[in-house]
Amino acid sequence: MTRMTLRNRALCAASALAVATTLLGAGAAAAQGSTSTLRGTVYEGQAIEPGGTVVARDTATGYTTRARVSDAGTYTLSGLRPGTYQVTVTSADGQTATDTVTLSLGQVGTLDLAVSATSAAADGTSLDDIVVTGRRIFEVRTSEVATNVSRQQIADLPQISRNFLNFAALAPGVVVQESDSERTISAGGQPSLAVNVFIDGQSQKSTILDGGIAGQDDSRGNPFPQSAVQEFRVLTQNFKAEYEQASSAIITSVTRSGTNELTGDLFVYYQPSDFIAQDVFSERRGQEKPRLDRLQYGGSLGGPIIDDRLHYFLSYERKDETRERQVFLNRPEYTSQFADRLGTFEAPFEQDLYFGKLSWQVDDRQRIDLSATYRIEQDLRDFGNGSTDISRANEVNGETLSVVLKHQFQGDGFLNEFSVDYLNSVYNPRAANFSETGRTFVVYRDANATTPGFQFDYGQVEATVFNQGGGTNNQDIEQQSLTFRNDLTFNTIDWMGSHTLKLGVKYSMQEYFVNKQFNRNPQFVYDIAANPAIFGNAAIPTRVSLNLPVEATIAENNVFGMYIQDDWQITDKLELNLGLRWDYEDNAVNNDYRTPQVVQDVLALMVANPAYVAQVDYRDYVTTDGRDAYKDAWQPRIGMSYDVFGDERTVLFAGAGRYFDRIAFNFAFDERYKPFQLSRTIYFSPNGGAFGGQANTVAWNPTYATAAGLDTLLGGTQGRGEIFLVKNDAPPPRTDQFNIGIRQKFWDIQTALTFSYAKTENEFQWSRLNVNNTNGITVRPSQFTNPATNQPYAFNDSVFYSDHNREREYKAMYLTVDRPYTEASGYGFSLAYTLAEGEQNGSRGDGTGNFDFDYATVALSPTFNAPGVERHRIVASGTMRLPYEFRLSSIITLGSGRPFTGFTGINGTPIEWFAYYPDRKAFLPGLNFAYRQVDLRLTRPIAMPGGTQLELTLDAINVFNFRNYSGYNQTINTNGNNPALRERNALFGAPTAQFVPTQSFQLGMRYVF
Prior knowledge:
Strand content: over 45%
Largest sheet: 22 strands, antiparallel, barrel
Radius of gyration: 31 Å
Low-confidence stretches: 10-31, 119-132
Distance between the termini: 52 Å
Number of strands: 58
Number of helices: 7
């Protein structure tokens, strides 16, 4: 099997690409929302002025875009990069008008122009001057619920990690959650899997693993260099038909480009351990504060190669984090055996991010962008904080490469955008010492204390004292894609109003490589107490386990998508947004898979057994000739907006749409992998035979400690796999969204009130096929004899099938207030308040490996509060200029707290899933919240020679050191099964774990030229 399949397919597609490039005028601008649109009407006095030309000139690069004025006096300029433009209209009889405006990413701005014979540039600026800032245009006539995050906010707002996606939390309904090992983004009450991120129109969707974004699963790093991001936009409701593979939120960003001026920066940020407060629980345990030193540095450079024509931009960022992990014993009586392995050890994390971009305006009609991003990181983790030796550490390595080529062609009345992009993301966690066998030292308990003497049982482990030696697993997971897109926009269609009609197609060749070698390093277990009832010797193992190797999997998936979107201005007040999208994947859920005959045989025997209880028809999960791909992913989307007074100040809007996501390959992969992941365990005893609850043990021989001896021993044993079955017509997750709201502008402050509803269906989990309604196993594969081996079928007891009946509902009210920062005013702020309810059923997990061992099927599971949804959440941000040229920025995050589960401790009573909420603490008088965080950044720019500038910054994260808790005591009663002694647990609801960050400070310096 070769891993070159995608590259070979790419070569086959090269000729098609060349033909398409020729036919379409070459390469692409951003399809997925990396550009903006400006439209309006041209007047002379009170009369509409038909005919003529409108030209928009980017004041930073000199790039120009032109459009003609229709017979109705309207114009549309599509495909504009966000930025500041001088817009000039020249009427058919030579009259002119000019204005200077600033457009944000993804917005459709309105600019009406009035011509006269003596018109001059706005504010007296000549057309040849470069205007750095312009009047910012608000987008109000849209049915989308979106939040724009500007370059100023990215640069000024406080944060520690330089991850621009942290600021997605400024959008209502969006939660950014940080832990010691990764950072996730979720929205609309759905998990992070339901989000999609686009950078310059390229989808960053993780197609195999959790995390939502390629490269973010188990990563402390950043997906992209922050210094290369110009701005981004978060769409949380009613996004248009051009957007794909997301059912909760879309984040679309545009990268920076070089300008006609040579500019750049160098920066360094430093956070020593002394600047970080210790979490309350380790402090209470008397532990030393763990070390965490963070150093981030890098820079950017951009400028012209040819003024007004060809520009470049380069960026590099480096992150070094040094953590310390303490290795200690919870059973100190065994300290002498491991004294040389205890202490404090470093756990470093390193990441490098590179970005480069070329932008070329070929002529007034064509523009080409070529960009590339490279990300590489290494992380040593999974040891310490207890009794796991550093020799047991894992190296979590990641590497991502993306290349985007885009071409934009502006014709008379149309815009064509064509792109081709390549994405390769590798997730490669490995045992740091895989060549060294693993050793676990345990203490066994007496299996029957009422019987004289020590009754040994291999399963009765009282405590794990120490884990040492090499880790168990190696993984190599890689997603690759080569994607072609073309979007065609018609701007001058007049019929019962004016139409902006956009059509698009996409074809993506995807390849998934998965090589999981789980438990491929022998793991020995030792009785550290040297109990004479076992071996009486701590150097002799009681058992060893090892899995057989499984061949790597390569799966190819062809993804097709097409859409049509009509933005129909019926009048100057009323607009309809009508869209339809269709997506198709030919191998999303093992469509090329054939159920192995041995699995079919076991299933037939199980179903024929009288004890079997049918939860589903197992034949719907068996395929002998591949599966038909899902073809019904039709997604209608409709929106409307009504400008009540025609002045863009009061706008009513509403929308509804269907949005399909996808099933990550890691879920379906278990069907291919698990039956052949054969686990073998050998139990050792003094004399062999029946011992310790096992019928067939092996007498220990020192040769078994060698590789050759172990191979001989394990070669004679039969391993066990597990049966996993994917439904033949498995549908992708689907969300139907509805919203209605009003936007109101007060002076230069934009507000919006939105009522939102979303219903998600077809979410997936693993349920068990061979259980009854009370969740008891009825029949086991090992009950039956395999005629090929004359032994029991080599499968574990549980047989799993994909259950696609999980559902969730989300109801919310969003209130947003936004006043962009300007240098003239010296201040800006935003506020996002979310009032929400979320419910779901099925598994409580939110990743690609969701299991449910508590209920037989999703249909039998209860409906409960969605675990990630807070009833109230407020995120406020702001920037203010202070005396002496200081600048203060802040983010305040307040939440009512996430629900947690209660266990009654009474046999036979239901579990109260996520039925309880944490106590709230005062933030301000009358304002009580369970989650409270105030972040500040103080910036002082210092003028330097040659017009350069030095910026000094101080970040204070969670400046008041509020204790925000992530876990709680879930035991409702003590002595739950004894009515006479049963009482309410006084510790129920008490915090047991704490969110990061604790109070943290960081110093920074940035040199700008």
